[in-house]
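User
Please review the sequence:
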Amino acid sequence: MQLLTQMDDKVFVHLDQLISLTMAYVSIDFQKVLSLWWPFKVRSMSEIYFEGVTTTFYMPDPMKNGYITKKDLIYITDICLDTVTVIECNIYYITADAFSNRTTWDRCLRNVYISRNPLIGSSIAFFPLVLLQNLTKLTVSDAIGTCQTFSPFPRLSFVEHFFQDISLHYLSLDGQTKFINNLANQELSILNGTMYLYVSKNLLSWNSKRLVPDLSLRLDITFGGADNLQSIDLSDSGFHKFIGHISGLSSLKTAIVSGNDISHLSDYFLDELYGLENLALSKCQFDRNFIALKSARILQNITKLKVLDISNNSLNGLSKGTFSRNSELLYLSLSGNQFKDIPFDLKFTPNLKILDLSSNIITTLTTDTTDALDLLNSKNGGFQLMLNGNILSCGCHDLSFLQWLNSTLVSFDNNRNYTCMNKDGERTNTLTFSDLESLWRQCWGECFFYVAMITLCLYVTGAVLIFLMLKNKNFLVSYFLQIFGNFKLHTRSDYKTDVYIGYSDEDYRFPCIELREHLERNLKLSTFIIDRDLLASLDKASGIVDAINSCWRVLLVCSKSFLKDEDWSIFTMRSAMYAQSPANPAKIVLMVHTSCLSLLPADLLSVVNDENILVVSEWKINYILSEKLRTRLMA
């Protein structure tokens, strides 16, 4: 309708049945349009809706339009209206007495919406509207331009009817309230350092979003008549110094204060808002040290709190016991802060269903925390955790967290896919590590391989040591007896004969002739041969035992027949084994053919040191064998 630039003064004269009128983007001065409503005086209408009714769509001209006085509103305030809406009509100033004639509206008007007008005058002119007896929703907002917006509360079922009406707003006050205002019926006054502010008893919703450029709340404020006021929106305005007492808002359920300067806040500011259920404090420039010490105290009296938004405040901690008195909390937004973990004990919020921790500095969550989140999910029939905007850690020390992230029934934003840093310091995402087995192998495979190898080596070493201990039991016993006891090893001089030669009767030639002669002539050792030296008066068994016990060394020539066929050979071996003692642990020396190694008895091998087993390929004395005999028999 921008082509409509003129309207006759009597344009509405014949519309005597009109109950609702909408004018959108009409190129006529708003003051001119207001002057056309004279035919509707003392009539009833449901709604008048103005949007973009101005001749200057970009910048109001103070000399031509946008200046509203009591005279301009004389007709429209005499119409019995249910709803009035004025949006983007480039109103820049409203005189203080503009709404003084409100007798008709006091009886009829229920909803007022005045939004997106570049007001540069005092917002005190709107204050008489809050006393309209039947007014339920008042919106005077968006007079201050801004590029900052705030996300609304989540539309949870328990507050949905409030959030659907979140665009219905109310009024605010500027710096002129520092003085007593002699308005009709004393709507606003200051007495003994306390500001008294009276509103309609039917008022439910009051929105002054982006209306007040500068107002300190250092004074105590007492509301009168606000028994039914349930929602206040003061967001993105110039309120500061929240250090006074607030009283008279016992029915208030929703308070949106985001975008104000709350760097100065008293810990008792919210004490009398007992019915508060929804509180938005996003981007409020909190003193992080004060919040880290006093957050529990600030929230202790609002025990019915269900929704809390303290996002974008650069907070890094909350005081101990925070939310201990807020057990009904369902939604909590901590996004846009600097928390390294969940900064409160989840046992204080047993009904919590949504926790927004996006855009913090969280890298991982401990097992205790994930267990508590799983418990909340199970108890409440669902739980949502928002972590987008955090740079998580997907290194080797966070395997349990990544496993929980992939397997838990807790709901997440961003399809559980978050930016993270891997073990090499490279940026990646968590979905890359959905196969945790491969990550586990990368992280711990090498370590456990070394552990397995070390364990195997220890096992093998232990087995070898046990084998060597069993095999060299006499040597070890002898060694420790020498160290810890009054014990000495026997020497060659302690024995009557140097060498007892044991052999098979079938293979006597080598031991009795060549070997004996070498020992006696070349090595100068005395020998005992059973067929030569056994006395006729002794039985053979006794003679063998006595001879072995009286000899320094027992040299057993282990031919095939010695090891397999002869009983006396076995008796000789047994006697030698029993004769070996810790005093003479190397008593037995074996000379065995290579073809007979497999025939050596295990019990014989268990008592003979490997060095005392001389393996020969033929029964013949050579230099190597001679030297071995020298070292084994003479040592």
Observations:
- The two ends are 126 Å apart (CA to CA).
